[in-house]
Every structure is written in C-alpha cells, then in structure tokens.
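Chains adopt folds. We examine one example:
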Amino acid sequence: MTIASGPPSANIDPAFFLWVAVLVGVVIAGGILVAMIRRRFRAGGQTELQGFTLHEIREMHRRGDLTDEEFEQARATILRQVGASPSPPKAAGDETGPAPQDPSDQ
C-alpha cells in the first residue's frame, strides 16, 4: 500500500476538472432554457387563448353559425370569465323590455 504524498488534489486527473466544468455548464444552460420556456408559456399562452368576444358570438349567432343553445352557453362562459352573472335566457315570445343593443352597433 502506497501513500501519496502532497495535497489530495494533486492526485486528481486534470480531465476530471474539465468534465466537472462541462457538467456544471450543461446544468446551468438547462436551467436557463427551462426558465425561458416557462416564461414564454406563461406570458404568451394567455394572450393567444383569449377566445371570442361577446360581439363576435352575437354576430356568429345572427349569421346562423351558432344555435340558440350554443350562443347561450358561449355567452354564459364569457360573462363568467369577466365576472358578470349571466341573466337567464328569455323565452321566444317574451319581449318585456327593450332589446339589448351592442355598443359597437351604434
């Protein structure tokens, strides 16, 4: 059994330090990449998934692209997202008040 003389770091191969440096670099680069991807999904995902506006679904309903039931479901979903409570749908012959007007039609 031989005992090496000198400090313990003197017996370590220099290639070991190279590989440790490469490994540390890969870990740091991976962390930066993950942070960039998370930031992109967090910021970009919200603006891309906004959906339809109330005016757009009214137009789709007027054109016949949406049935009455689909229109009411979409309208209720949009109103829930903005924090308003949707009013119950009116019956077909129920004209108890003035028809709601879309501000963009004025």
The mean pLDDT is 76. The chain is about 55% helix and 0% strand. Residues 51-86 form one domain.
